[in-house]
C-alpha cells in the first residue's frame, strides 16, 4: 500500500499539477519549487518534516494500548479500519468465504 501511494504521489503532480501557494511562506518556498521524487527531501523545510513525523507517531501510537488510545485499541481487531466499502462489505459468511477463496 505504501508503494502504491508513493507511485501515485510521484505521478499525480506531473498529471494534475501542484498546489498553488506557498509550502513555507516564511522561507519563500512554494509548492512549484519542490521537485518530484527523492529531490523533494532536501526542499521541504525542517518544520514540515517535523509535522510529518509527528503525525506518523500519532498514527503509530493510536495502535497501542496506552493513554488516550487505550479504549479504542482494546476493541479493535487487526486489519479492521472501520471502513466498509459500499457494495463490497457483507456479513454473510458464505459470501465472505467465496470471496476469500476466489483467488486460490
UniProtKB/TrEMBL annotation:
InterPro entries according to UniProt: Chloroa_b-bind (IPR022796)
Keywords associated with the record: Chloroplast, Plastid
Keyword Transmembrane helix on entry: no
Listed GO CC annotations: chloroplast
Main location: plastid
Coiled-coil zones: none
Highest taxon above the source species: Eukaryota
Localization, UniProt: Plastid, Chloroplast
Protein name: Chlorophyll a-b binding protein, chloroplastic
Amino acid at each position: 500500500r505504501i508503494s502504491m501511494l508513493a507511485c501515485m504521489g510521484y505521478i499525480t503532480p506531473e498529471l494534475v499539477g501542484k498546489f498553488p501557494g506557498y509550502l513555507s511562506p516564511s522561507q519563500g518556498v512554494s509548492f512549484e519549487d519542490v521537485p518530484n521524487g527523492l529531490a523533494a527531501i532536501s526542499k521541504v523545510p525542517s518544520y514540515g518534516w517535523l509535522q510529518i513525523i509527528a503525525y506518523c507517531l500519532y498514527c503509530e501510537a493510536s495502535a497501542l494500548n496506552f493513554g488516550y488510545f487505550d479504549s479504542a485499541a482494546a476493541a479493535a481487531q487487526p486489519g479492521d479500519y472501520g471502513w466498509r466499502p459500499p457494495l463490497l462489505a457483507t456479513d454473510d459468511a458464505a459470501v465472505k468465504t467465496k470471496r476469500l477463496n476466489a483467488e486460490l
